[in-house]
């Protein structure tokens, strides 16, 4: 494909040739001659160039049609970054100062030592604009200044204002989250499942539990001299005590606890029975019904009244068995 004179090699065609032979599945024998291959590669390169020019022209048309909107968005991003990024603001100001210093216009007024002649002063007076032009120029300047004041100026915020803005953003995010949790059942179930899984993992992690206990101890030590903290803790302890007392005195809670421990006791005996099923024939004859009957006959404190000595001012508990 290359000519005998290397100085006449077309670099574009050579690049197309290399690109073609790097394609997977190409052997180089698909074309009858090198001229046919070069022609196809030229067509492909021409199509790529036309597509690139079309994209560039389309973007230029879009920019010409929406130039004001594009510039407005650019200004908004610039002002927002100038307001929220102190390092960027300082860097931009330094760049502007360097640019103004480099392109500073020299004063066109003559030196004080140079004195104008009478003819030059007369010519300057003749060239001076009349009063109407001066008034128009002054009015236009005032309008430009007023328009410049109405344009969005970069807002300079201190640390407290930046923190307040961040808190507002977080509060809006929380509102959106609460709204989605209320209106999207799938999202709510997914989040709750994730929370349950994380809670179970953390609850079984001894290091996490120890760290939480230490953190609570540090917090109490840090606020031990704070009267507000002591009052809050006293109130919370009172509420917890009242709630616990109410739970222990609630008949439904008592019944539920009784059923729970009954199931636990039954499970324990069944495990013991399974372990000793092949070893002891007596244990094989004991059934779950016998265990439940035995459990019904026992007192709630499990024979503690029989084994432990009775208090001095209380008569020993009588057995319920006949």
TrEMBL record:
Identify the stretch(es) annotated as Disordered. Answer: 28-248, 275-322
Basic and acidic residues bias (residue ranges):
39-52, 59-93, 113-147, 162-210, 218-234, 295-305
Indicate, by first and last residue, each region the UniProt record lists as having compositional bias (Basic residues): 235-246
Superkingdom to which the source organism belongs: Bacteria
Q: What is this protein called?
A: Uncharacterized protein
Organism listed in the record: Bifidobacterium lemurum
């Amino acid at each position: 494909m290359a000519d005998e004179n290397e100085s006449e090699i077309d670099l574009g065609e050579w690049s197309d040739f290399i690109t073609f032979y790097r394609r997977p599945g190409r052997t180089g024998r698909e074309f009858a001659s090198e001229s046919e291959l070069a022609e196809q590669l030229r067509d492909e390169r021409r199509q790529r160039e036309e597509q690139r020019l079309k994209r560039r022209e389309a973007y230029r048309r879009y920019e010409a049609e929406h130039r004001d909107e594009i510039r407005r968005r650019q200004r908004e991003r610039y002002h927002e970054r100038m307001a929220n990024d102190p390092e960027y603001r300082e860097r931009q100001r330094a760049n502007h100062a360097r640019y103004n210093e480099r392109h500073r216009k020299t004063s066109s007024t003559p030196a004080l030592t140079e004195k104008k002649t009478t003819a030059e002063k007369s010519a300057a007076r003749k060239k001076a604009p009349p009063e109407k032009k001066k008034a128009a120029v002054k009015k236009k300047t005032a309008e430009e200044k007023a328009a410049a004041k109405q344009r969005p100026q970069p807002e300079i915020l201190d640390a407290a204002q930046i923190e307040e803005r961040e808190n507002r953003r977080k509060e809006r995010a929380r509102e959106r989250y609460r709204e989605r949790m209320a209106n999207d059942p799938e999202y709510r179930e997914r989040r709750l499942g994730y929370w349950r899984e994380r809670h179970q993992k953390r609850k079984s992690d001894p290091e996490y539990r120890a760290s939480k206990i230490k953190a609570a101890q540090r917090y109490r030590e840090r606020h031990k001299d704070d009267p507000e903290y002591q009052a809050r803790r006293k109130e919370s302890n009172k509420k917890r005590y009242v709630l616990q007392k109410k739970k222990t005195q609630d008949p439904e809670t008592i019944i539920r606890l009784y059923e729970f421990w009954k199931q636990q006791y039954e499970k324990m005996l069944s495990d013991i029975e399974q372990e000793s099923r092949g070893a002891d024939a007596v244990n094989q004859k004991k059934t779950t019904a016998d265990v439940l009957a035995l459990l019904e006959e026992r007192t709630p404190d499990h024979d503690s009244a029989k084994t432990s000595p009775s208090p001095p001012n209380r008569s020993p508990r009588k057995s319920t068995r006949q």
